[in-house]
Amino acid sequence: PGDYVAILGYLPYDPAYFDVLGRAGRRLSSALGAAVCVEAGPRYLHSTGQLHKGGPETGVFLMLTTRDPVNLAIPGKHFSLAQLYRSQAEGDLVALAQSGHRVMRLDLPGHDLATLEAVARALGHAAG
Question: What is the DSSP string of 26-83?
């Protein structure tokens, strides 16, 4: 009672992906009787991400990550855009865990729609 679930998708932004995750979130919310939010990383870090890490320990976090197939160089830097993006997810995971929050990361083998639908089905099954 009083907990919420946050599905944190560090995935390429595609409305179809987040539609699948949104449906999964609604099913979880109904099954658990808890608020569920679905957020796109790293964008949420500057808004609700602050609440997640600094707020009460009532959040249960599922972080979804994948390897970005597009790896663009950043001029003048020794790291790529994909590495920067991944390090933001890693940093958020560490910050949540070190703050004592309940967090699990699922590193997906790909970010195709079929993979996300399988994750959504598994979440629904786990919630009962």
Answer: HHHHHHHTSEEEEEETTGGGGTHHHHHHHS-TTEEEEEEEE--S---B-TT-SSBHHH
Q: Which backbone phi and psi does 13 adopt, to 5 degrees?
A: -70, 115
Helix or strand (DSSP H, E) at 120: helix 113-127
Could you report the per-residue pLDDT of 42-53, keeping only the tens digit for each? Answer: 776 666 666 666
Question: What's the CA gap between 87 and 5, in Å, rounded?
Answer: 23
112: Cβ contacts below 8 Å, ≥ 6 apart: none
Closest CA to 90 of 37, 38, 45: 45
Shortest CA distance to 68 belongs to which of 11, 6, 21? 11
CA 24 → CA 78, 88, 124, distances in Å?
A: 38, 24, 7
Contact between 39 and 85 (Cβ < 8 Å) = no
Closest CA to 57 of 1, 3, 5, 105: 3
Mean pLDDT across the chain: 86
pLDDT of residue 57: 81
